[in-house]
Amino acid sequence: MKTFSPTPKDIKREWYLVDASDKVLGRLASRIAHRLRGKHKPEFAPHMDNGDFIIVVNCEKIRVTGNKPARKIYYRHSGYVGGLKETSLEKVLATKPHLALMHAVKGMLPRNRLGRAMLKKLRIYAGPEHPHQAQVPTPLSF
Asked: Is residue 116 part of a domain?
């Protein structure tokens, strides 16, 4: 018996809707990354992008535990000398809550072309509304 290796025609992608209200940031991100990667499917192959599309709503109501809101810092650099900028998780959640979840999921995906393609299948919205009703997403609860 030969080992099954999926081809692009074998991939069947689904659309899922996740409500992030009162979910812990890291736990939700790991479950989303698992689905984006396609590891929940029996035909998973590490060299292919066979994951599903994920729509996350109510991202503004996400929770974090402990002292992370004040102590967790996101860094970015402008490229110039002395251009290191830092932002606390508290400020990120207050201004752009979708970036906190996007950053957490991105860190759990492969760091190559494949990971960037997987991240494009994630749609995050701060409120309860989303423009993807035509795809008829299946509600997914974690």
From this structure: yes
